[in-house]
Structure prediction request, 107 residues.
Amino acid sequence: MDSPNDTATAVPLWATAVWLAAVQAADGLCRCAGACGRKHRASGYRCDQRQSLNGTNLHLAEDGEVYCPKCFADIAKALRQAADAETAEANAERYAQDDLFALLGEA
Prediction:
């Protein structure tokens, strides 16, 4: 790890153990493979942004992966939308069952 862009030399003061483990598992690279909506063609269909002291800080997402700021914003939005859809579906099932019980109670 001799490069100035290495994660060993680019550890922010605010880094947590979970963040450090995720960055190390990702070898200091953004884990996006296009989920952000960009194709990343120039870098082999994977984002090539690396954790560095130059200002690129990888962000830890709810899925446990780290992403550069550009990819993170879109991926975090997609993860929130998926969680909201899952919650809405669970609520719909619960309310449908409540409606069934109401109908049975009125009979």
Q: What stands out?
A: Residues 1-8 have pLDDT under 50 and may be disordered. The CA atoms of residues 22 and 65 lie 6 Å apart.
